[in-house]
Design a protein that fits this description.
122 residues; alpha+beta; Trna Endonuclease, Chain: A, domain 1; five-stranded mixed β-sheet; 36% helix; globular
Length: 122
């Protein structure tokens, strides 16, 4: 039986997130949540290292540049609201520095990590 286009896209997204998790773990980040859902939306990855928390949007695209331009200001605002909801529910991390990053995974295993990505968009 053939899988639907939607199922293949979902699987490709999961693969891309797993790739990002490995990349972050090798750099000392601890993944504290994956696909965290809030009333405001979903956060793909949440990572922590020392006194910093990353809220990461993962974009998996066939073409690398498509992923770089796929994050809209509205999406950034939604993720920031979702992150605020997450922090409100976790008082232990309320005092930590927060950062919003973009990670793009493209065909051929190409991965780009853009720290502070939301600052240039919002």
């Amino acid at each position: 039986m053939t899988r639907s286009v939607k199922q293949r896209a979902y699987d490709y997204g999961l693969w891309a997130e797993t790739r990002c998790i490995c990349y972050l773990a090798l750099r000392g980040w601890r993944i504290v949540a994956r696909r965290h859902r809030t009333p405001f939306g979903e956060i793909d990855l949440i990572a922590q290292r020392r006194k910093q928390v990353l809220f990461i949007e993962v974009k998996a695209r066939q073409m690398h540049d498509d992923g770089l331009y796929a994050l809209s200001p509205q999406q950034c605002e939604r993720i920031v609201r979702a992150a605020s909801s997450y922090v409100a529910a976790k008082p232990k991390i309320a005092g930590l520095a927060m950062r919003f990053d973009l990670m793009v995974v493209a065909k051929g295993w190409r991965l780009t990590h853009i720290p502070h990505a939301f600052e240039s968009i919002v």
